[in-house]
Write a structure and sequence with these properties.
The complex is a heterodimer of chains A (about 110) and B (about 120). Chain A is mainly beta and about 110 residues long. Chain A has strands spanning about 5, 10-15, 20-25, 30-40, 45-50, 55-60, 65-75, 75-80, 90-95, 105, 110-114. In chain A, strands 2, 4, 5, 6, 9, 10 and 11 form a seven-stranded mixed β-sheet that branches. Chain A has a four-stranded antiparallel β-sheet with strand order 1-3-8-7, with no helix packed on it. The termini of chain A are far apart. Chain B is elongated, with a radius of gyration of 14 Å. The chains are: A mainly beta (about 110), B mainly beta (about 120).
Chain lengths: ~110, ~120
């Protein structure tokens, strides 16, 4: 089955630093990748949709300058949380799909900002 | 704007009992997904429902989709402790021509606890 790898799985860093999260589709070419955020005991909220080679489309209320998304190839998308603060602490999950398949989810990245 | 509502949000079940989780959504779509999430983990795909009347079963779980009523159900038969988890439904938005946007809107999740 389709596999989506997300790295790192857990990161702890100081307030003010930037953190990069990678999302890779391992056995298919992902035309579209999605980034979600999940706060404790809440549902998943879509942050942005990225298509290979074009700018990401951000959902309302998501700061594009704070959450930088790059989808440079059909197998890799990255999310960079710039100048992270404690309120950015969350569980970030990526998903990837091609035209034929539903979304496949990565294992998630737990981000803790001290 | 597509809205997805699940109920109940919390479900405490005895082992061996049956129950149903409901997922209602607000706009036309014929693409609905059910996921399971264990604490600290990502999503595990359970069912993909892509047409009106679709019914799928896996073990003690059965999911169905009624696109006219904009309702999906996840039925649990003879619950066991291993089914304890959070269950999400998610609906894929489509435009008037039936073309998918690709985006998923999730329900709030149902926290299921199965006890002896």
């Amino acid at each position: 089955g389709a596999v989506v790898s997300q790295h790192p799985s857990w990161v702890i860093c100081k307030s003010g630093t930037s953190v990069k999260i990678e999302c890779r589709s391992l056995d298919f070419q992902a035309t579209t990748m999605f980034w979600y955020r999940q706060f404790p005991k809440q549902s998943l909220m879509l942050m942005a949709t990225s298509n290979e080679g074009s700018k990401a489309t951000y959902e309302q209320g998501v700061e594009k300058d704070k959450f930088l998304i790059n989808h440079a190839s059909l197998t890799l998308s990255t999310l960079t949380v710039t100048s992270a603060h404690p309120e950015d602490s969350s569980f970030y999950i990526c998903s990837a799909r091609d035209l034929r398949q539903p979304q496949h989810f990565g294992d998630g990245t737990r981000l803790s900002i001290l | 704007e597509l809205k997805v509502e699940q109920n109940p949000l919390f479900l405490s079940m005895q082992e061996g009992k049956n129950y149903t989780i409901y997922c209602n959504y607000s706009t036309t779509s014929d693409r609905l997904y059910w996921y399971r999430q264990d604490p600290g983990k990502s999503l595990e795909s359970l069912f993909v429902l892509l047409s009106n009347g679709a019914v799928k079963q896996e073990g003690r779980l059965m999911a169905s989709l009624d696109t006219k009523a904009r309702l999906s159900t996840l039925h649990i038969t003879a619950a066991v402790h291993d089914l304890s988890a959070t269950y999400f439904c998610a609906v894929e938005g489509v435009n008037a021509g039936g073309t998918s946007y690709g985006k998923l809107t999730f329900g709030q999740g149902t926290i299921l606890t199965v006890h002896p």
